[in-house]
Amino acid sequence: MTAEPRAVPETFAFTCGDCGHCWEATFQLMFFTDPTDTTGLTTQEYVDEDGKAIRSPLADAVCPKCDGRTVHVLEAGLAARARRAEHEPRPPHEHHEHRLHLPHRHTGPPEDDTR
């Protein structure tokens, strides 16, 4: 393997399906190339913010708040927007009249749906 692997930072946003906690984490996606391999294939590995090699963060995500494993991956930046939305006051709701919407009744002969 090469002594100097290439690294690409990747940021993921997560939300916990158990407690609702949202967070983001940045990982280094490391690419290793074996110089003796004639196919030119690379091996990749994720490294977390603590420098620990891990499997895909998408497969092994654990909520840092409740240790839940029902974690969903979101678009990066979405977790921060969700946190802001939880803490910002909502604009006042415009008053409008609610009406019950019922399907329209057809008074003619039944339509032929045998096309």
Automatic annotation (TrEMBL):
Protein's UniProt name: Uncharacterized protein
Positions of region (Disordered): 81-115
Compositionally biased spans, kind Basic residues: 98-107
Basic and acidic residues bias: start-end ranges: 83-97
